[in-house]
Design brief:
transferase, EC 2.7.1.160, 17 strands, alpha+beta, single chain, RNA_2'-PTrans_N
């Protein structure tokens, strides 16, 4: 059986989630999974993947519902499209570059033949929107007995819709983060105005990165890379859609500034409240559009506990201040992951399109 993605030491649910994220964001074409242009894949096709065949539907449903970042979306209904793409043979040993060359050759052959050309997957051109139906109750997943539970395929519990109607079934997609080029933005909410309504949805936007990448970003701009979009979060938005916890560089963007470019830089909102932008025609947001950049710098200083009466370092057994600090440190010592967690100073290094030199230190709550 194929291995799940992630490290073997990771929790099994984490590895299942990583595998799902890879398939639904990046790997569907390589694996031969039929994917609609809105990013949906039939659940029965997902559960038929070699490395997911031990996954039951109640377990999959549990993974989606319990995901803290709400990375996946389940849909129950039917596909009224005239035709549906068949599952393709898995593509092995082909890089993205090789696949692109293969697609270019096919397109060139079609053009030489004089036949009408269609950009993208021909089956996608005939797609109709999925029709939602009331979802049946899903048996609760029991982690103590993961292999028990509902083994019935999720598309076999469907009511009769008539002889000409498609049968309802479950579909799943990633909320955002696709690198698959056939997935469109139809499932995303466009933010087209910087009015009160638009600002209430996205506010001030922030992208989390690494401090060591700043010089490269400053030189070339913020790039979407191989993905369709640059991922942003609403500043002070909380954990659901915020930047990664290990970010050490925060790039702030203004909605009015993006929308007033010529042409405007598109902004979208995903179902899990991640803000997305494709950038300009080159897939980049230039440094001139950064409203602010904040860098985290490690604080190497150490507090000195002073005796108030003598102005000298206090003895350890008489300092109430040190006692307070020790009480603060003790929980971190009990938590091995946080025991040696360093403290950081936040510095504004870029503001309103220009470098801040020297950097300006700020309080943490001023930036996030």
């Amino acid at each position: 059986m194929s291995k799940l993605r992630g490290l073997e030491k990771n929790d099994e649910d984490v590895r299942y989630s990583k595998t799902l994220a890879y398939l639904l964001r990046h790997g569907a074409e390589k694996q031969g999974l039929p994917m609609r242009k809105d990013g949906y894949v039939r659940v029965v096709d997902i559960l038929d993947e070699p490395n997911l065949r031990a996954l039951t539907f109640p377990h999959l449903y549990h993974l989606v519902e319990s995901n803290a970042k709400k990375r996946f979306v389940l849909f129950y209904g039917y596909d009224p499209s005239a035709s549906r793409p068949e599952r393709k043979k898995k593509q092995q040993g082909q890089t993205k570059k090789a696949l692109k060359l293969q697609q270019d050759r096919v397109q060139e052959d079609v053009q030489k033949s004089g036949l009408p050309t269609v950009v993208g997957n021909a089956a996608c051109q005939q797609e109709s929107p999925l029709v939602p139906l009331d979802a049946p109750q899903v048996e609760k997943y029991d982690p103590e007995h993961p292999a028990s539970g509902n083994q019935q395929k999720p598309d076999e519990r469907s009511p009769t819709l008539g002889s000409n109607a498609k049968e309802p079934e479950w579909f799943i997609r990633a909320a955002q983060g696709h690198s698959i080029t056939t997935v469109t933005t139809e499932h995303l909410e466009p933010i087209t105005s910087a009015d009160e309504e638009g600002l209430s949805k996205v506010g001030e936007m922030v992208h989390g990165s690494k401090a060591e990448l700043w010089e490269s970003i400053r030189e070339t701009g913020l790039s979407r890379g191989s993905r369709q979009h640059i991922h942003l979060a609403r500043a002070r938005s909380g954990a659901t859609s915020g930047p990664r916890a290990n970010s050490s560089l925060y790039i702030y963007l203004s909605l009015p500034r993006l929308l007033t470019q010529d042409p405007p830089i598109a902004v979208f909102m995903s179902t899990n409240n991640v803000i997305l932008t494709p950038g300009n025609a080159q897939g980049v947001i230039s440094k001139e559009l950064f409203s602010k950049v904040v860098r985290l710098r490690r604080d190497i200083s150490r507090p000195v506990i002073m005796n108030e009466a003598q102005g000298q370092p206090a003895a350890k057994n008489i300092s109430s201040q040190e006692s307070d600090i020790q009480q603060e440190i003790q929980p971190a010592k009990r938590d091995r992951k946080n025991r040696e967690r360093p403290r950081f100073i936040e510095e504004v290094i870029w503001e309103n399109g220009a470098a801040v030199d020297p950097p300006r230190s700020v309080e943490p709550d001023e930036t996030r």
